[in-house]
Amino acid sequence: MSKIYVTGLGPGAKDQMTIYASRVLEHCPVIIGYTVYIDLIRDQFPDKQYLSTPMRREADRCRMAFEEAEKGQDVAMVCSGDAGVYGMAGLICEIGKDYPQVEIEIVPGITAASGGAAILGAPLMHDFAVISLSDLLTSWETIEKRLRAAAEADFVICLYNPSSRKRSDYLEKACGMILESRDPKTVCGIARNIGRDGESCRILTLEQLKDTKVDMFSTVFIGNSKTMELNGRMVTPRGYKDV
User: Is 13 in the same domain as 28?
Assistant: First the structure.
């Protein structure tokens, strides 16, 4: 039986891909993905058959993977970060009900939350929520509810897709909602180009973050009431020394 491996590539750097993910890509004769992600690995695996679709053609991409698998060859469906975190794993599983003869395996990778946290220090040491500010697949009303609930519950909040040309003010609006229940001096961080050329990070307050411009290559971290800056690192204490 042929298999589709839904494979997380990690942030983008070769050395931040898991060993198992690399083995999967070596094994599969066909690799399918969004064009940007294909370009990250093409030089590393030059002898593969590469198939891609543009953005917003995710369902077509998944069906393409099943059609290739039906020909009797294993297929790697690649995503950045972790395939199960805003990746293709869920859609592959949904569409897979129409292809019961094709086996599916999910191959995890380093997602932006963990990759960005490592650059900034240790902001996710306690309970946290990951929320995407993209309203392409989720209504802004739902995003607002989740932001306010996470803020009021004092979760550390990690924001994916914080801004784009069409959503240039979404981070500002999100910070405004969070400021309804958080101190303006709350420690926050921005990690950009995680695991790629030009990787950088910055620590700032929630008040400053509200007026800061970011892009789709940025992941934003908003600390909880205990988060602090220690020697240039963003740290959320777990509370070990109080035990």
Answer: yes
Largest distance between two CA atoms of the chain: 59
pLDDT of 199 reads 94
DSSP secondary structure letter of residue 10: B
Range of the domain at 90: 3-107
Polymer length of the chain = 243
| Structure confidence at residue 241 (pLDDT) | 67
> Does residue 124 share a domain with residue 101?
no
Q: What is the DSSP letter of 210?
A: H
Comparing C-alpha atoms, which of 8, 20, 19 is closest to residue 86? 8
**What is the C-alpha to C-alpha distance for residues 145 and 160, in angstroms, rounded to an integer?**
16
Q: Are strands 218-222 and 200-205 parallel, antiparallel or unpaired?
A: unpaired
User: What is the per-residue pLDDT for 239?
Assistant: 78
DSSP secondary structure code for residue 130 in this structure: E
DSSP state letter for 89: H
- pTM, rounded to two decimals: 0.93
- Give the rounded distance of the alpha carbon of 62 from its chain centre: 19
Residue 242 is predicted with a pLDDT of 63
Q: pLDDT class for 196, splitting at 50, 70, 90?
A: confident
Q: Are 160 and 80 in contact (CB under 8 A)?
A: no
What span, in angstroms and rounded, lies between the C-alpha atoms of 85 and 83? 6
- Name the amino acid, one letter, at 33: G
